[in-house]
Amino acid sequence: MEILKKYFPDLTTEQFEQFAELLPLYTLWNEKINVISRKDLENFYERHVLHSLSIAKIFTFEKGERILDIGTGGGFPGIPLAIYFPETKFILTDSIGKKILVVDEVVKALQLKNVVTKAARAENIKEDFDYVVSRAVAKTSDLLHWSRNKHAKKLIALKGGDLKDELKDIRKNIRVVELKDFFEEEFFETKKLVVCS
Q1: Which of 32, 74, 133, 185 is the most exposed, having the fewest neighbouring CB atoms within 10 Å of its CB?
Q2: Which residues are registered as beta bridge partners of 176?
Q3: Are residues 20 and 124 in contact, defined by beta-carbon separation less than 8 angstroms?
Q4: More confident residue, 39 or 128
Q5: CA distances (Å), 159 to each of 17, 89, 193, in order?
């Protein structure tokens, strides 16, 4: 939790309490439905929460904007972003229903009024969004394909490793942000934010 204070000192008491509840909730639910590797639970706030919140270091989502989280899995990056931007609407989608079940329980426990979940494939959601976000789900070309009818201003994808081959044939305006420029922990050394507009 100290790592969140270090990089996001402006968190309100309510936000801090909500973030504090995440680890016990995921520890409980992970025993029933595996959504986070056990090794990652030991570094939960760094590898899941802070990694998700890295989007907030570059983007500010406004009141009333609609954000689609494609392939949310256990709720990342959507849930941490929904806590950080309480006046923005987040739609968290995953094609695996049992993962959405865990997300629903976490959303209910935290009383997040700005989150809606859908057990569905992203390409089958026929709605408009201001932004599409994703975290380590698929190649950028697939994410662009799945979000092409959403009229979003930008696709924001959390990625890792060497992306040269993955990005070389994309005919979109692409910006790659190195997360090591924002966070000093070793985990972020190879992590990137890919922004397509």
Answers
A1: 32
A2: 194
A3: no
A4: 128
A5: 28, 23, 6
Structural domain of residue 170, as residue ranges? 2-196
Whether residue 111 contacts residue 87, with contact meaning beta carbons closer than 8 Å, is answered with no
Provide CB contacts within 8 A for 176, sequence distance 6+: 163, 167, 192, 193, 194, 195
Chain-centroid distance of CA 135 in Å reads 6
- Under a CB-based contact definition with an 8 Å cutoff, are residues 165 and 186 in contact? no
Tokens of 99: 């993962």
Cis peptide before 77 (omega within 30 of 0): yes
Q: What CATH number is given to the structural domain containing 38?
A: 3.40.50.150
pLDDT digits (tens, 9 = 90+) for 160-176: 989 989 998 888 899 99
Instruction: Count the neighbouring beta carbons within 10 Å of the beta carbon of residue 94.
Output: 26
CA distance 46 to 62: 25
Structure tokens at 194: 């890919």
Residue type, 139: K
Q: How big is the chain by its Cα radius of gyration, in Å? A: 16
Question: pTM for the full model?
Answer: 0.96
Q: Which residues contact 149 (CB under 8 A, 6 or more apart)?
A: 123, 126
Alpha carbon 132 to its chain centroid, in Å, reads 10
Identify which has the larger pLDDT, 39 or 155: 155
